[in-house]
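Hello,

Our lab assistant flagged a job as stuck in the queue for most of the afternoon. It eventually completed. Since we weren't sure the result was trustworthy after the delay, we are filing this so someone can double-check. Below is the sequence as submitted and the structure that was eventually returned. Let us know if re-running is recommended.
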Amino acid sequence: MRVGGGGFLAGKRFGNVGACSASLSAWIANKVWSAPWRSFSQGSSDEFTRRYDEFIRAGVIKEDKRQRSLLSTLSSIFTKIRREDATGPKGPRTKMKSRRGCYIHGSVGAGKTMLMQMFYESVRGLLPTRRVHFHEFMLSIHSRIHAYKQRGPGAGAIQEVAREIAYESQVLCLDEVQLVDIADVAMLSQVLPVLWQHGVCVIATSNVPPSRLFEGGLNRHVYMPKLERLLDQHCCIFDMSSSGDEDKDHRLDAQPVQGMYQVVRKEQEFDALPVMWTFLSALELQRGVSDAEPDVHGPVSSTTSVSSASSTIPLPYGRSVRARKVGRRIVWLDFASVFNQPTGATDFLTIAERFLSPAAPDVPSSP
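-- returned structure --
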């Protein structure tokens, strides 16, 4: 069954989509990632446990043995980093023993990303730290290698880019590691050793253990055994299901924020999404988004004024997607135009960076 007019609307900045997400954004800002985190890095590893306990008492999360066990592992890593920061030399490290990180794998909704975020928020006050989605990380490496080759001979480009990354970030948090491309496998096998040689601590999350990365991929036996050995050598391999708890998906405990999803059947007369689009368009005009935030990603194929007519949004590698309406930083997409054609992480990242608030109606319902 298809739900007519149903869809989702998302905002990337607090308060930019009114009632539909302001309450969620404010709650997260005040209850979870608020000012106390900034002082967290000045304490001991015991504060990991205290903060986790505070979240449980506040009803933000529920007790989970898997998370408790991972909490202890990350606390140990944090303690070592804090001790090195207090006694060791400052700045990027050159050709020295790497900091042992952690590769966290387990089912969706187990809390992997949440606890990695806790680690990131605590350690970034001590050392240059970067937290990035794995797809975005790999895309940035490809882009930087291409730029390096444009400046001169391409020999050693991968190693040089890896050294630049090590100089920028001494702790690297990679979320949602997933290898589906042999080129990414080969590149990662060269990038990670350089990072570890320069003392970078890598914290990664994935739905699968290293032994199942690039599972069934072409020539997996050529690259993956080496990568698996490197991960085992430089990271604690943490299995979120090893505690014996059932694989509970904590995302299902959360209640959807009122207004975030609009489900409208075809026989119903009122569709809230056009109303919300009008509100967002007015908000753009009121805030002067066009002047305050110039479009650095290039124009779409028609006017970029607020609430413009249908337009074609350019995507990487010559692809494009048709939009029903386009504002300066808001867009109204048809679900079919995005998902019924070959699209991938590169395209979604482009749309997410280009627009603060995407909306997509006509999402098919479950049977």
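-- support follow-up --
The delay was a queue issue, not a problem with the job. The result is valid. The radius of gyration is 23 Å. Residues 1-43, 289-307 have pLDDT under 50 and may be disordered.
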